[in-house]
What does this fold into?
Amino acid sequence: MNSLTMTCATMSMAPTIIGATATRFPIGGKIRPGIKVLTQAAERNSHAKQIYEAGLNAGTAFEEIEAEITRAVPELSYPLVPKNVSYFTVRRADFAMPEVADVILEKFGEERVDGVRRLYRFPVVFPADAWQAIMPHALMCYGASELKYWSEYSPDGRERYCMSFARVPLDAGGKRAIRIFGGRKHVMRTENDGRCDPEGCREYQSKQCNLTGRFIFMIPGIPSLNAIELVTNSFYSMNAARQTLETVALLRGGRISGFLDGRTSFWMTKKLHDVAMIDEEGQPRRVPQWLIELEAPVDPTRLLRIERDQARIAEGERAVALLAGAPTATIDDAGGAAAAPLPLTEEAEGIAEPERLPAERRAEDDPLAALYALVVELKIPRDKFERYAKKKYGAGWSRNATGVRRVAGAVGSFKANGNGALAAIDAELDMFTSID
It folds into this structure.
């Protein structure tokens, strides 16, 4: 689970606690939402204080500082505790290329109260259009040195399971572990028939298991091909960010990635909020917390204009192609000839019956036909799919190669969701209806 060696995985659109799981990207570094400080017991130990201060000055990761204190002062099993602060922590030890941390602080750090340069606000660009891919999260329980349990949803999104690693099998002699191909196997936890039930879970109730999520992004002007992650355990922060991302996606025709209007980034910052919580006696109370906030500092009407302009450009390209005597061709983003979209004629109506078109033609010569064949394969009613595509991508999506590619990518991501594809489209339509 080392974030610096994360590898890409196939996107899964199965629902999770606040949405759905997502793609993993190669991670080159970590920005932390706060700091760790000495406990009261460690504060009273001069040796522990010395190690802590030296680690801070050297930019050492908090985990390494904590381990060094424990080795030097064994009676301090847990010498550090998290502390919520108004700034983010950027440490050299948290990056595969330590100099990247220096560049981030140099470009975006500020000296506010005590004269120390810290990261209070910075721009981000997301590498994917699905918010689940850039904000993966789950309930997770860690042991002394590794992940013990985590939550996963069933393919149809109806059940949430508690997962664990299977025991490594031994050879016939029972003395030597068998080499496992592809890593340790994942199995459902034996307790509670494998279901994830936080209210009845001893780990969750003892605060060993918590919601854990990450924002995955790139920072403009930072020389790194890998993404950066920001870890958070705050449901409030993740839920508010999800709403911001969904709003932007609606205004941009489903797009989150890249610059918002060609030049403006999202921005990450922290703001102080009164957060509702239940105390040990079961009474509600509000406590001040610095929460991560995702800002989109752009005029929303400009995003709508840009989206409409792009649709008009696509229509113009199609008109130019028709006037040039190429009625079955259109122009792609790079200016080259793209596969012809299928006109909405009787032939188009026949796409719902895949046997009327050869498989080779659907797959190679007619991307729109291939898209509708996939819709049939996923058992999505055509009228519902067309309402979804029109609402999310505009009325002209099927008449230009860019629109067909964009919708095909979205529908293709549903394949990993199995029987949940229709549920995902229903959820999208419900969301559109709620804001109409």
